[in-house]
Amino acid sequence: MREIRFLKKVVSAFTGNPPWQCTRVSEKKGTFLKTTTIQDEKLIEIFITKNDESAFEELVERYCEKIYGLALRITRNSSDAEEVLQDVLLTLMMKLETFRGESKFSSWLYRVTVNAIYMHLRAEKKHESDVSLEDYVPYDEHGTLMGRVKAKDWSNRPDKALLSKEAMEMIERAVNELPESYRVVFHLSDIEGLSNEETAEILGLSVPAVKSRLHRARLFLRDKLSDYFYEWDK
Fold first, then answer.
1. What's the topology of domain 2-11+130-231?
2. Is pLDDT larger for residue 152 or for residue 130?
3. Where are the chain's structural domains?
4. Is 25 helix (H, G, I), strand (E, B) or coil?
5. Among 21, 53, 82, 217, which lies 20 to 30 A Cα-Cα from 63?
6. Rounded to the nearest 5°, which phi and psi values hold at 76?
7. Highest mean pLDDT: which range of 13-27, 139-153, 203-217
8. What pTM did the predictor assign?
9. Are the beta carbons of 138 and 215 closer than 8 angstroms?
10. DSSP letters along 188-231, please?
11. Who contacts 139 (Cβ-Cβ below 8 Å, separation ≥6)?
C-alpha cells in the first residue's frame, strides 16, 4: 500500500530539528558514544554498577530523538515536547535501576515516554476528551465501506504532488486531527516500526485493540487525503 509507506516517510520528517538536549549529548565524546555493538542492557549495567556517565550518554544518544519525536507527534508543540523530553531524561537518570529486563529497554522507555506525555497534557489541561474513531467508517454513496476511498486512489500520484509544501501541510493537518490515543498508536506502529505486540505492551492494550486503532487511524488518514490527492492536476 503505497499511501501508507508514503505517510510513514513524510510524517517521520515532521519532527524537524532535534532539541538542544539531543544535540548537546551527540557532541560529547564519551567512552561508549557512537558504539553500536554494546547492547542497551549492558550499558544499563555499566551505568548502575560503575556510575559511568558515558554509558548513560550512549543510551540518551540512541533514544533522544525518538523520545522527542514521539512527544512532538502527540503534543503537537515543540516546547511541550522538549519539556516531556526533559522529564523522561530525568526519570531515566533517577529510575534506570528499576528496569528489570522483563521487556526490551526500548519498550520500557517508550512506556515511560507515553506516561510522561499524558501527565504533561493533563497538567497543562490539554488532554483531549476520550474521542474515539471506533464509529468512524467512511461509506460511499452506495453505503459501501471504503468505496469512496478506493474510487479515489492516489497511490500513483507523482512525487511532486505528494511532496509539495501544500501537500505536506495537508498531511500534517490530517495526522494532527487523529485523537491522541490513535495518534500514538500510529506513531509507534507506522513511524517507529514497532510490532503490534510491542505497541500493545507499551500502551497496556490488547493486540486486537492496537490493530483496531491502527486500522481506524489509517482509514481516517486515507479518507482525509483521498479527495485532495485525487483532484491534483486533473
1. Arc Repressor Mutant, subunit A (1.10.10)
2. 152
3. 2-11+130-231, 20-123
4. helix
5. 217
6. 65, 25
7. 203-217
8. 0.73
9. no
10. IIIIS---HHHHHHHHT--HHHHHHHHHHHHHHHHHHHHHHHHH
11. 145, 147, 148
